[in-house]
Amino acid sequence: MTLKSTKVLHEPFSASFYFGPERQSLRYAADPVQPNQSYRSVSKTLQKDFDGIDVLFSKDMAYAVQNHFKMFSEEGFKDFKHTFLIREPAKAIISLYHASTNPKLTGWSYFDPEEAGFRQMLGLYHYISQHIDDSPVVIDADDLLDFPNETMKSYCEAVGITYESNMTSWEPGPVADWDTWAGWHENALKSSGFTRRSHRNTQKNSYDDEIEQLPAEVKMAIDEARACFEYLAARKLDVRGTEV
Hints:
single chain, two-stranded parallel ribbon, 10 helices, Pyrrolopyrazine_biosynth_F, Sulfotransferase family protein, P-loop_NTPase
């Protein structure tokens, strides 16, 4: 995050999901439980005041907070603005499948459909919109690539942050807080920003050949994610025409 006076927390509830005393996944079952990664402990960290920090930005996976949505109704979360970043299911899940079955890159050796996360994301969206904020922010990853500055400006306006023109660029290099998920962010660590792409492949069948070669459970995960994605996509920020 390039904004001054900002603290970024990277997937704190994912640590609870995989390693905490109430962990909900068996992926790291051989690893010891980490008592300090309970949902309550992480929640308290997010709710506390940080000296000299004006903006706290926390990124996480919706599946990591499944069965714990109610905590976001607590008083300590009342000033939080919830944002949902969506990506076309075939792109997202094919990428997840390749990373999940590449032990040398990520340490993972199998694909788990639950980690696709679209169903949990829609469930969280419904909870937030019904109990906390009737219009949570939704951003489409394709818009971020096609209109990076426009998307960032629209996002800042939606959540009450001052937009700065350098928000979509950064210095490449390691990020200490990402060490737990080494391999997952290899391309991001080598990048220096969001660069507006010259064209988008909009052909509906652009992934059909690759999808046909996928295991049945991966194809099923893509099919099951489509309705969730389309519901959220219909509510995304309209960034076209935003002046920067």
